[in-house]
Amino acid sequence: MRLRLLTAAGLLALSACATSSGAGTATGSSDPRAGEAEFRALFKELIEINTTLSVGSCTKASEAMKTRLLAAGYPESDLHILVNPKPNRPQDGNLVAILPGTDPSQKAILLMAHIDVVEAKREDWVRDPFTLIEEGGFFYARGTSDDKSMAAIFTDSMIRFKREGYKPARTIKLMLNCGEESPNEFVGAQYMVQEHLDLISAGFALNEGAGGRIDPDTGKYVFNGVQAGEKLYQDFTLEVTNPGGHSSRPVPDNAIYRLAAALQKVQAVEWPIEFNDATTAFFKRMGELTPGQEGQDMRDAAGGENAAAIRRLRANPGYDALFHTTCVATQLTAGHAPNALPQRATANVNCRIFPGRTQEDIQKQLIAAISDSEVKVTMQSDPEKPGAPPRLTPDILGPIEKISEQIFPGVPVVPAMATGATDGRFLTPAGIPTYGVSGIFADPNTSGVHGLNERVGVKQLMDGRTFLHLLVKEYAGGK
Prior knowledge:
The protein is an alpha/beta fold. 35% of the residues lie in helices and 20% in strands. It contains 15 helices and 20 strands.
């Protein structure tokens, strides 16, 4: 299949075609779909700036987006790049841009997207992960889905707001932050909350965390998701130490075997089934949309009392993760030489903790399940502050339903809880309720998020761009 690399010349040609055909540009047009060629150029630039932990630079990406905002007419005083104060981390720059509102009595709205991405090895990918490629109706590259799509859309909207002379009632703030994929290494949302909360303060924030679902068989849009709450993230280190010795003289107490036994016990833990408002609403609404036994099971499971329905739904990993805390081994390190008994064996166990539980609760349960005093179970980092899931009030949900019906007629809005973790986990406890909504539809099984050949549908990206542009205006008011 022919690959289409988005070159600068190609983008200029697209821009010329759009202008000549009357499609409009981003310069002054209030058409929510205007300026696609310019958006493509912005998206390409952001994607192709490597922002991985190993060799990338969020500062470079923030500076590139700041340059575009300056060109749109934002004064320097409304644009801020906050860089990690650690001398060895100058690449951790976060960008905050502000479009002042006309009504100081209304709290600001924060548009939030992370610009760092997961590592990607060229030799493992079909295409260069840091070159934006359009093929078969998709954009392929690292970050196309997670999360430079929303970063590009929000930046593009801020540019268009300025150029069209839009005067929002609410102040609109944009935060492009680093560190979501490596919160213990990069300076990102947590740092902004701790050191610059006044700069990003808002009545609520829009973030990643939920998108639209596509039926993989028909290509139809099934539902538009809105995240209200997420699991708590915590890595635990399991460690076994041993005197070691020569491998020609094995002993019963082997650090690797002891660690392996502990991990098998972790695997066998049955975490309790739990529900909250978001997961109950998810299963109830999805049950109304899903035919057959699966739909009936969802409706039955929404009450939390039908064990057989829950058991059948748990065969799907996506549904299973909504029911309870999950803990899974993700990394192993052991031994120091091939001809020596191991002196140390460690494993990382990654837990996504159901809201309402604490990291200390889970640590105690892991220790009890392993039941071996020779296996140390420690938190890899200080526990994050848990927060109650933000409420989906009519003021929040109403505009989402209104704009969703306008852009995606007949497609229902479904509340959800994120089983992963987003930067919302730092903002919500700090008093900025954070909701995940993108209007970008995808089949989660083929989007390649955190994996190989990450992609986003071209039409779906453009639909999400229109949806979010109108949604922000609906929340912000003004004219």
